[in-house]
Design a protein that fits this description.
Length: 940
């Protein structure tokens, strides 16, 4: 197989993937014998003479090696990223003779005599390209993993555009067409549009900007290092053998042949002979070897034998009478919840109900619902939502290095192993604790690194099986082991949002007050439990008369993990459509009704803004006949205030600079910038003057990036650390330097009528270290204790979204024409980054509403949507103009006056789109995604 596309597809889909394992296990002894005797793969090695980033080079490559491997592994140019491996996402884009190319599909031998430019070569000698400057200035990035590919493509477009059009601005459609081959899972498209247009206008031809994101330069130049970029000397490559069946007993697995294969260093098993697997792609065993090819050959020698069992893949089949049990012992079912799992009784594959009717009167709600039904005051609906996959562009990469204690320890010192990990994680500090607990180690003997994280939406918040496999393999091999799941594995077992079936009923009184709400939801988190929607439905409209019940339905599918606003999008998709029905049944508009029901003061102010928008004021004049029909829809959402009072920030200050350190991480949500901004505000410096050290569990405890807790926890801790620094330096200046008249002012200390900059103060006093912690909120908490170490505030973050859509009733396509999002979350510390977060949340909500859907083979349970062509996420051309409005009136009950926004901004989007589709067509979308076939079927 000389063609690189065929080679990569064969290796990923046949040998390393589920299909290959199943085939080798079933085709008979002749193929098994051939596999066991196979020689190592032979590759023709050739030398390619080309120019790389302006330098002539001769590079030795394999004849079938793609350019991305040559660039990353042989040349060490890690700015070029590998994500999809199929030419879909654009992260690996390079320039060949000035033309953008996907380097994962291009053979390295095709570079002979040609010029190759990677993102590192876009800015020779550190002189940034106008596109790079614009990306920094407009914050056209979040996690930054896709950014090098965008920058390379956009720079080529910019240069060609300027040559042809001067400083004329390209349209959104022209920018979208140029960047159509690129995906950003964080959803930074709005700022990317703005950056490319600004660069083409000539606004960034000279002078590097002061970026709102402190790590922006590293990300636009390819200097930012992610786990997939880390190289450790002597590192082995690990691969995981996965089940080809949704339910089966492993009758036999012989590891001897794999262990005997030259180059294989370790084999571990996760399922014993006679053990059960409960979903396709479940981890069965793993191999560590000197290289990827040898690891894959080792997997092919394992040859598992199976007794295939009946399975259930969806909510309906799992509840059917006589359905096979997913768990014989229900207590073994894992939890997919971000926090504690609500209690519930088991009945076969169903667990529940778990009630969110806390302090309410569900019995009275039932009576009111039934009375409203008989009096014609009840509105109801049944809704279904699909499985949404996290799909971060950087997969769950991990390098584990287990080091046994040396044999020659000093007398009396106990031998203790240590573990060092490089992980793409949302929880540096918590993960170190989890690893120490699982392997019975001291926490100080575990070290976790995560310098940059390429996207994380909840699936990277816990200890994953990739990490378990890497640690176990490293322990056996006594060498570092690297495991990076491919895109098919990531889409299968990398994490997903549960599917749901919801029945919602809402009763209004005769005078239009909220009477009662009843919601019964059946959610499937795969083999796991914890799919709760009622808690989110409880937050939105104040009433004691609610019955909110959740049932878990376990299936033979991969376990879910918390995903941005867990439980929120499906709950609000159902509830807010029924609320829309109530308003229409009463002849009222959506805002009039909601003003009456809504008790959130910030959102009540935001309704004024919505009413002032031309899209709202002109809604009556939209076309609602003919082929193209338009409508607008409104939806609201609330989210909890989560506070982790364990947050710490340490400042190490010297004449060389000021470093703020914490065992936190930044996955694109801007945590580094939040800390830098908090410190700079106290010291009177620029955020870029503060160096932030994140991603090392050896630093003081940071917080998990989940549940919108990071900013509200880390910001106040950083403020306190900086305040203590100012106080200590002022005291040192008085006591040690004799500056009796010293006063702290922005930028330094005032002494003798002039300001002494902090660097000079520190040169005189010597280094100073201070520690800040997250103090108690003045308003107290909803409950006196902290579940899972997190306090729940009495305030709520609130959102309201208006969406304008167009529905093509001939082709069934729904297009979002505009979105307006209002957030009431108190003080916004870094508005530019906050706006980027909100825009990204809306983009992910658009994907949930219109495109994203996991597909499984009903016979085998194997994933069918195994690549980023078949699992569709929004591209830049799918994104409308998004306007964000912050009601930033400080929240008095919260320290520092502001809370997180990462969850609440994505929760109302699907409901808002669905209400807009109804407004346009008169058809109520009850099932997500709102696919063209569903639109056409409803309109026929």
């Amino acid at each position: 197989m000389s063609d690189p596309v065929s080679r990569r597809g064969f290796l990923r889909g046949t040998v390393a993937g589920t299909a290959g394992v199943a085939t080798l296990a079933t085709v008979g002894p002749r193929l098994a014998e051939a596999a066991s005797q196979a020689a190592p793969p032979t590759r023709d090695i050739v030398s390619v003479a080309c120019t790389v980033n302006g330098r002539s080079q001769a590079v030795t490559v394999g004849a079938d090696e793609p350019v991305v491997d040559m660039v990353r592994e042989r040349l060490g140019l890690k700015g070029t990223k590998l994500s999809c491996g199929s030419g879909t996402c654009g992260a690996c884009t390079v320039l060949v003779d000035g033309s953008p190319q996907c380097s994962c599909l291009l053979p390295a031998v095709a570079l002979e005599g040609r010029s190759l430019t990677t993102v590192e070569g876009i800015a020779p000698q550190g002189h940034l390209h106008p596109v790079q400057r614009a990306f920094m200035a407009k914050d056209a990035l979040q996690c930054g993993y896709c950014t090098p590919g965008f920058v390379v493509e956009a720079s080529a477009f910019h240069d060609a555009w300027r040559a042809a059009h001067g400083t004329q601005e390209p349209s959104r459609d022209e920018v979208a067409q140029a960047l159509a081959g690129h995906l950003c899972r964080c959803g930074a498209y709005e700022a990317i549009y703005a950056a490319v247009q600004a660069a083409c206008r000539g606004e960034h031809d000279r002078g590097d900007p002061l970026p709102p994101r402190v790590e922006a330069r590293d990300k636009v130049t390819g200097a930012a290092r992610y786990t997939v970029d880390v190289q450790v000397e002597g590192m082995l490559r690990g691969r995981i053998l996965r089940s080809p069946h949704a339910a089966a007993v492993l009758t036999r697995l012989d590891t001897a042949a794999a262990q005997a294969l030259d180059g294989v260093s370790a084999v571990v098993r996760f399922v014993d002979d006679g053990g059960r697997v409960r979903y396709a792609d479940q981890e069965v065993a793993a191999v560590a070897a000197r290289d990827e090819d040898t690891a894959r050959r080792g997997l092919a020698l394992l040859l598992p034998e199976w007794q295939v069992l009946p399975h259930v893949l969806d909510i309906a089949s799992a509840q059917a009478e006589g359905a096979p049990l997913v768990w014989e012992l229900p207590k073994d079912a894992p939890s997919s919840a971000e926090g504690a799992t609500l209690s519930g009784k088991w009945n076969a594959n169903v667990r529940g109900p778990a009630s969110s009717s806390i302090l309410g009167k569900p019995g009275r709600a039932d009576k009111k619902i039934e009375r409203a039904r008989t009096e014609g005051r009840l509105q109801s609906g049944t809704f279904q939502t699909q499985v949404q996959v996290h799909g971060a562009l950087e997969p769950h990469a991990v390098i584990a290095w287990w080091k046994d204690a040396p044999a020659d320890l000093p007398r009396g010192e106990l031998p203790r192993p240590t573990v060092e990990l490089w992980v793409s994680t949302q929880a540096v500090h918590d993960l170190a604790q989890d690893v120490a607990q699982r392997w019975k180690l001291r926490q100080q003997d575990v070290r976790v690194h995560a310098e940059h994280v390429g996207g994380g939406f909840g699936a990277k918040a816990s200890l994953s099986m990739e990490l378990v496999a890497a640690v176990e393999l490293s322990r056996l091999a006594q060498a570092p082991v690297r495991i990076v799941p491919d895109r098919a594995e990531e889409l299968s077992v990398g994490g997903n949002r549960p599917s749901h079936e919801l029945q919602v009923e809402v009763a209004a009184t005769a005078d239009g007050a909220l009477d009662a709400v009843r919601s019964v939801a059946h959610g499937s988190s795969g083999v796991a439990v914890g799919a709760v929607t009622g808690m989110i439905a409880r937050l939105l409209y104040k009433s004691d008369d609610k019955r909110l019940e959740d049932y878990d339905v376990v299936t033979n599918t991969p376990p879910s993990r918390p995903m941005r606003g867990p439980g929120g999008p499906p709950a609000i998709f159902a509830l807010e459509q029924v609320v829309d029905q109530v308003a229409r049944s009463r002849g009222e508009d959506s805002i009039t009704l909601r003003r009456r029901w809504d008790g959130h003061p910030g959102r009540l102010r935001l309704y004024d803004w919505i009413e002032s928008l031309p899209a709202w004021a002109g809604r009556a004049g939209l076309p609602r006949e003919g082929r193209y029909r338009q409508g607008v829809g409104l939806a609201c959402a609330n989210w909890f205030v989560f506070i982790d009072r364990g947050a710490r920030v340490q400042i190490e200050a010297s004449s060389d600079g000021i470093v703020a350190a914490s065992a936190c991480q930044d996955m694109g949500n801007g945590s580094r910038t939040v800390v830098a901004t908090a410190v700079s505000e106290v010291l009177g410096l620029r955020p870029t003057d503060i160096q932030v050290r994140f991603g090392d569990s050896r630093d003081v405890p940071g917080v998990m990036s989940a549940g919108s807790r990071t900013t509200a926890s880390m910001g106040p801790a950083a403020t306190e650390a900086a305040t203590e620094l100012v106080e200590e330096l002022s005291e040192l200046a008085r006591d040690s330097l004799g500056w009796d008249d010293v006063i702290a002012v922005p930028g330094g200390l005032q002494h003798g009528g002039s300001t002494v900059p902090w660097a000079q103060v520190l040169a005189a006093t010597g280094p100073v270290t201070t520690l800040g912690r997250r103090r108690r909120d003045p308003g107290g908490y909803f409950i006196p204790f902290a579940p899972s170490g997190v306090n729940i505030g009495k305030d709520l973050a609130a959102a309201v979204q208006l969406t304008h859509v167009e529905v093509d009733t001939w082709l069934g396509k729904t297009r979002v024409l505009g979105a307006w999002v209002g957030l009431a979350a108190g003080r916004i510390r870094v508005p530019t980054l906050a706006r980027s977060q909100v825009e990204g949340g809306v983009v992910q909500g658009i994907g949930y509403a219109l495109y994203e859907e996991r597909h499984l083979d009903p016979v085998t349970g194997q994933l069918l949507s195994r690549n980023m062509d078949d699992y569709r996420i929004p591209g830049i051309g799918d994104v409308p103009p998004i306007e964000v409005r912050f009601d930033d009136q400080a929240l008095d009950g919260v320290l520092d006056g502001g809370v997180g926004i990462g969850e609440v901004c994505t929760i109302p989007t699907a409901a808002s789109i669905a209400n807009a589709v109804f407004d346009a067509t008169g058809w109520r979308p009850a099932t997500l995604p709102i696919r063209p076939d569903r639109v056409l079927e409803a309109r026929s």
